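hey so i finally got around to running the thing on that chain from the lab meeting. sorry it took forever, my laptop kept dying and i had to restart like 3 times. anyway pasting the input first so we r on the same page abt which one it is
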Amino acid sequence: MGEIFAGRYELVDPIGRGGAGAVWRTWDHRRRRYVAAKVLQQRDAHTLLRFVREQALRIDHPHVLAPTSWAADDDKVLFTMDLVRGGSLAHLIGDYGPLPPAYVCTLLDQLLSGLSAVHAEDVVHRDIKPANVLLDATGTGRPHLRLSDFGIAMRKGEPRLTETDYVVGTPGYFAPEQLLGAEPDFPADLYAVGLVALYLLTGRKPDSRALVEAYANGVPPAPQGVPEPLWQVLGLLLHPDPEARFRTATGVRKALASAVELLPEDAVPEQESVEVFDQIGPLPPGFGPDGPEEAKGFGPGRPGAAAAPPPSPSDTGSFRLPPPVRAPHAPGSPDAPAEHAPAPSWTPTAHASTQTSPVLPAWPHPQPAVRLPEDVHVPQPPPARPAAPPATSPAASPAHAPHHSPAVRKPGPPPKVAVPLLVFALLCIAVGIWALTQAP
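ok and heres what got predicted. didnt touch it at all, straight out
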């Protein structure tokens, strides 16, 4: 089975790898579902600080894949996020090549929607590229993408973790001002969105340097495979001058919605031919749709597992102790258990209708619990005898009639002697009173 991380996350199999760590399909024992976990590989202070920044980002948006929780175990750290199974835009281009313009507009609108939520938190992503835009496995239905990987994202105004003349990100998706050492800003993210759009429409990675040179005399004509209405939007996104670009993702969405209405009608039916497959392989042996197959997460080597042989837990989570060894009782004695009746496990009380919990006697030397076969009968300790016999109804059967103890003799003379003495004493008192009344 997989490695248990921080007593909660069980690493199943790797599904991706990035610059700062590997991404694993992981079983969350607390939430009882599969998640994606990014495990940090490097442990230097610089990388840990970036990790803290990334896991601290909490953006709840349907098109943003932000971290949901994190954990640390010894010298390892990870954070988790939803498991997205459809691969990335890079996988989609690898399967189909250039995509239909109408389909690309749907993807761009969702990407810009998520990016607007990121920018609303004053966060600059700084690494928008096809590999960081993931897709749910929707088949031939409407696509659903998630913007992911905020490893180098930063809030505006926060101190930079790199030198001023050092650029972080993916080569080929830098904005021109980033190469000049400008502070990260929203227009740089929008420039990267324009490069992603060209990649989806042409099926190949854009040449960013040649693209900048093409703007020497203004906005160049639309590249091959890009409809003119769509290029009117992308041409402004890809302008080398950040002041000439759109300023917000919301503004790009509005312009894109107008461009979609001007697209050729034959571009819409082709959208149904694109299918987003499940890019994550089957679960490895020992794991099923509902988690680990061996005791659902509590087998050998898992948290909470006991050493073999395990004790026998009861329905309430406690443990059954073995019955004590007692000397056999003489047949017919009151303490002898019934021959075929199970011994009660608690002392009966007068309130028979109230359910009580079993009370086990405190034996001086408890032994390890042992699970016995069902066909083996072990006599249980007899119940404690009550101080007074419980009241029974007259309709009780003779077999269950209570046992009456013999009457206990009280101190003093028997009635045959006491009654005559009492009568004689009364006569004496009467004679004495009569004598007193006759005295002169």
